[in-house]
Amino acid sequence: MGEQLLSRRQFTARCAAFGLSLPALSPALAAAQTLGGTTAPTPAARTVRLPDGTAVPALGQGCWHLGQGRHPPEVEEEALRTGFSLGLTLLDTSGNYGGGRSERLLSHVLAGQRERIFLVSKVERDEIGGDGIARACAASLARLGTDYLDLYLLHWDVPSDQFPPLVAAFEQLRRERRIRAWGVSNFNVRQMQDLLRVPDAHRCATNQVPYSLNNRRIERELLPWCREHHIPVMAYSPLGGDNRLVIADPTLAQLGAAHGCAAAAVALAWVIRSGSVIAIPEAGSPAHVRENAAALSLQLTAADLQTLDRAFPA
């Protein structure tokens, strides 16, 4: 337990050094091999339905660190475009990611692609007073180079007495067509219950919370509650987060080898297995995006799920 955890980049590099890297299959190729042939069709896209009936990809692309020097901008832009080509057309960003640099980077890949992208951004809790939500939204739209967001989220929870003006501000943006839907992040069950008592709060589209094999806390109360109320969960840090990545776990490597994919695909397929959870992993390179995208065509067996439960108990 005292050993230092490897970052995803370090782990991939170390595997390559020992000849252990597992090539990720494209969704079409993975499907073909699963069916025992080379001409099998690509499976239908896996989607999750929002309360208003909108279908969104079960697997998107998180953009927390993009545009902030982790990789050359052109590499990150190519990674995003690679994701688009593989069905990862949901982008999740925020006005405070890198002081707006994430949104500015996304503006470069949205050009000519906007109608096929489901674009998510966020407002901070210290911006919601007065007309703060409208001003924050306008700033995000300007940085992104678009005139609407598909989904606008409150980034962190606020006291329940602030819910009525919060909902009213979101609804005003929706009526003005600057956003198409709104939701929240990091709410617990009590906060969700309080929220739904507010007029028009039934339009809350999602609750974005951390969820991964090594962080299953929402399974106790929040996930069952959201399913009961038909509010899908959007899982951030679905691979465990920067300092707790699960992809170095030998169980995931073994299952990935059995399915012909990377460990990341196994972890992500587990997160989206129910059909009511959207995962938004971040990847700064095309290679990592391809690894992630293989999760869309990976069907974990009952035995796989039992193996993962033993390795990562709830």
How would you explain this protein's 3D organization?
The protein has helices spanning 8-17, 27-34, 73-85, 101-110, 132-144, 163-175, 189-195, 222-228, 250-259, 263-271, 286-293, 302-311, and strands at residues 47-49, 55-57, 61-62, 90-92, 118-123, 151-154, 182-185, 204-210, 233-236, 277-279. The longest helix is centred in the N-terminal third of the chain and has 13 residues, at 73-85. With 314 residues, it is an alpha/beta fold. The protein is globular and about 55 Å long. The strands form two sheets. It has an eight-stranded parallel β-sheet with strand order 3-4-5-6-7-8-9-10. It has a two-stranded antiparallel sheet with strand order 1-2. Helix 3 packs across helix 4 (101-110), helix 3 runs parallel beside helix 11 (286-293) and helix 9 (250-259) packs across helix 10.
Key structural traits:
two-stranded antiparallel sheet; 314 residues; TIM Barrel; 38% helix; alpha/beta; single chain
What does the largest sheet look like? 8 strands, parallel
**End-to-end C-alpha gap:** 19 Å
Taken together, the total number of domains comes to 1
H/E element string? HHEEEHEHEHEHEHEHEHHEHH
**Rg to the nearest angstrom?**
19 Å
At CATH level 3, the topology is TIM Barrel
* Separate helix tally: 12
What CATH architecture do you see?
A: Alpha-Beta Barrel
Secondary structure: helix percent = 25-40%
The proportion of residues in beta strands is 5-15%
